[in-house]
Amino acid sequence: MITHRMRRIVTIATSSCATLLIALLTGSSAHAALPTAASVPGGVALIVLGPISASSTRPLAWLGEQRVLVAAEGAQWVAVVGLDLATTPGTYELRVDIAGEWQRHPFSVVNKDYPAQRITMKDSSKVQLSASDLTRVEEELATIQRLKRHWREAAETDLAFVLPAQGRRSGRFGVRRFFNGEPRSAHAGFDIAVARGATVKANAQGQVLAVDDYFFNGKTVFVDHGNGLISMYCHLDSTAVQPGETVGKGQRIGAAGMTGRATGPHLHWSVILNGAMVNPELFVVESGKKS
Fold it and tell me: Three-state SS string across 29-44, please?
């Protein structure tokens, strides 16, 4: 005969096993810090997809045709959606596959006004391009677009970034730029003013996706953090890693410089999420708090 005390023991044991199994399924990512939510052009939308259970698998999510990172936060699955600066404010829809069951999760993007910045370039050849330079830039942009859409399946993605360099924060994300009075693309990164040769480190663990020297970006390193999250470090004076190499958070990947189109030595740091350039500051954790 099963007594009330025996039923209580079985219930506690079953609950404990389920909790342990969820922890094993989700790993340390269940306690990972999510980026700061900002459902604006250039921001990150956080969309709760549902509870994690002992029998659930990680949902698969898409925005349009692009896969979206899904993280475990506490007891919930959360889609971490990158929003390009060119995103028009309005309502969008995330397509989600949860164990073969398709769902649609609508979300809104609101407007954000970014300030303007006027930059004077002494080297006008970086503003008014020659035919050969224009051909080179078009080829490089096509390569960078392919890198931005890269997807590597990973069990975990570290979303709590450290700053890749120590210095004055000089160029904010999203600024509308004018070079020698001519409008150009918005600043899709974050600048840190440092001396030439200053250490540049990986803001999170990952794999080196590419190392190259571009017309505008100069010497550049791409680090793939997994599941559509990629960091790009530009204008480097030198690089210290090779494609395919695994790097740890805080590992030196190069030295800052002013290669490419730059008015002085600094690090231009971009973060790419599901193919969209997003504000890197949303991911930075300093002294236990978001930047």
Answer: HHECCCCCCECCCCCE
